[in-house]
Design brief:
mainly beta; 4% helix; tonb box; Beta-barrel_TonB
Amino acid sequence: MSYPVKTAFPLTVMACALAAPACASVEPVSLGVVEVTAQKIRQNILEVPATVDVVGAEELALRKVDSLEGLGKLVNGLNVSSYTGGQPRIYLRGIGDAFDLKNKRVAVYVDGVPQLDSVLQDPMLLNNVERVEVLKGPQGTLYGRNAASGVINIITRRPEGSGVSGFAGVGSRSERRLGLDAHSSFYDDALRLGLSTTWLKGKGELTNIANGSRGDIDKYDRRNVSLKADFIPSSRTRVEMGFNHFDDKSAPYLQTFIDSATLRPIHRQRAGMGFEPSKFYEIDRDLQGYTRTRGSGATVKISHDFGPFRLNATTGYQKDKLYTVSDADYSSNPLVRWDFDPYINDHRQLSQEIQLVGKTDALYWQSGVFLYRDRTDNSNVFKTSFGNILSHSRYRTSGWAVYGQADYKLTPEWTLTGGGRFQHDKQQLRDVQKGLAEQSRSDGSGSYKVALAYEFRPDNTSFISYGTGYTPGGVNTNPQMVGGLPVGPYLGYSPEKTASLEWGLKGRLKDLGLGYSLSVYQTMLRDQQILDMSDTQIKNLGKTRYRGIELSAQYRFAPSWSVNAGYSRNDSRVDKSDLAAAVGKRVPFVPRDTGRLGLEYNGRLAQADLTLRADVNHVGRIEADSLNSFGQAGYQTVGLSARAEFKGWWLGVNVDNLFGKEYYSNVIANSPFAGTHTALYGQRRSVHLSVGGAF
């Protein structure tokens, strides 16, 4: 396996970090133990035979990360973009879900509950996130469906003690934000209650040249509130309950046309069929449009220690509704009209997991049962120049699974991990509008994992693992496009399966103040589900190979200074496809490589604890079609963060995209007009000021 010169970027950083002690006298720095629940049990991160990236609350606050897209700047190999505020497209190690909102490849969990639909509010907007764990590679054994490439595990903070904290902020383009967190305990800490709420509002970044408005088409108003109650009657029993509600107003679809040769933005002529140049951050819409998403959820987790084992039971219920009005022809040309007015996605889900966990000196085991049901009603009024087309479909999924996994210490240094899962999934689709008979598909899928880990010195581990995952088959939730109109049947597709071999090395060198992680992997994806742009139907297009290397390092080279670096290289190739010309090409929508480099200072200034940080993020070339005929070149952005902690209050400043780099977050070959493609603009330069305190 060979990689180009760009790999030298993080390797140089690591080499400098290792060599630094020879050049300067640095006091030893204690690197704290990081505990995670990525494998559904509490473990030291070094005991997990997989690559896990963890982002804690302090780093999320310092970098002002309030979206999954922002999380991608902190995690190697994670790339997130969005067509609307409520529909993130997540890629991890090159595998993701560009178009399918139901059968995802990267599972997202919040407090142990799977987010089965993509129209939920971005969970990173919550102001009480304790940490985010990104578990990489297929995780079918513990997480089942939708974990073909990995898992994003979001853990929110439970109420503890008594206190009130809050924050307020302003930013570019009239951004305003408020947050409040209150918690208290009663009856000798046996009952704990918590309240958390967030509000974020602002103008957008885009100019609509059809009506001259600036920042209106992509403005946003996002609100949520969560209530928590923990009941702890004894040291052996714990009951955790939570309720949340959110209301999001955000943008409609925001693609713009781009010239296929120059990749510069263009727009349709007001009269005629030609195109004219646009400026960056301009779009053309005769229908302004908007998206509104509202929803609620409840979670109950009961845990009891029986001595030989602990019982954990997690129940989750969620409902949400997305309502979108959007210009789908991406122009104000009166000769062509394709509008979603409206498109509605009404979703609800119920899940139940029961888990047994036991631990002895040599064995750490778990087994469980998982059940779920969810229902989505999709309805659409598709307004065209030739009249309105109505569609209404009901999509139901359900399933059950049994699983088990165990870590067995062969010797104090060697640990063997093995596990398996069987899951049955059923997917049903009914065209309510046409009154057609229900279509259904059922599949049973087995997943397994085996790993061997060796602690070659204290706090330093090497591992090798082989694991599998899958994405269930199903039925397309939208009718087949025929002649540019959604009038065809709903086609079915088969499950896709992943298998990955990975070798990794990770640890802490406390005497040097260095933490590091290195992994090399190969993943095979069979029967890959990809959207066929000719008729907008998901189909199984063949087999794809992914090979990659990831490394990261955190090095404190002086008492107040540290450097954080990461790099990910993904070499994807289509090995088999229905489209012969695509064989040997790279998978579209996936960066060839990503990198990050951060320099941080922690010290005292007058009466404040001061943190200053500068970050450079690199995103490599992204192919935009299956033939790799065009794509976006790599780009770099720079961000600055500062936070001053005083007694009882704090002040923060953030600058994103410091040098105003113009780039696209997504480029797609889905335009019906020759010589053009479509794209989504990346983030503009923005400045944010926040202040908060605790009482």
